NADH dehydrogenase [ubiquinone] 1 beta subcomplex subunit 10
Amino acid sequence: MENSRNPFLRFMNSLYYVLDAPVTFFREKIIEPNQKKYPYYHQKFRRVPTIDECYTDDYVCRYEANQQFLRDKDVENEILSILRQRYEHCNNEDPNQRGEEKCESMYEYYKDAAAAWFAKYGDLGPKPHVVHAFMKQKHRMVWERRHGPVGSGYKPEYKIKPDD
């Protein structure tokens, strides 16, 4: 309470509050309520329509769908990279003991994720486009309808009609 008796400190405190009060009020009442708060450090993009929902002459929609496709590809690349790093870390954890039994489930999970990644993005080249990926998906679906799941070895028997 000695600060309140000292006239110089009282003057400095009042000057501080005169300058600080409007700034604090503005920040707490206007800036912070209107600020976008992201739970992560990166920006969250809204989902845009996929390429099958775009009209053929809507170039903006096609561009947005392609950008969304490329962002999804980057995310799935990182997921695959993290799974690979986890498996390698599991194997390198104890050099005296082979971790094949210990890391087998992790390796299976990585293999499944890699197969799914290749089914979606494999053979698209260095600059993939969403239209090519969509056509790849369409061709795969047609193949599976005709021949069964890819890799199953199922070949339907076709009956040859005798010529009349």
In short: The helical segments are 2-5, 7-34, 59-92, 100-121, 130-147. Residues 2-34 form one domain.
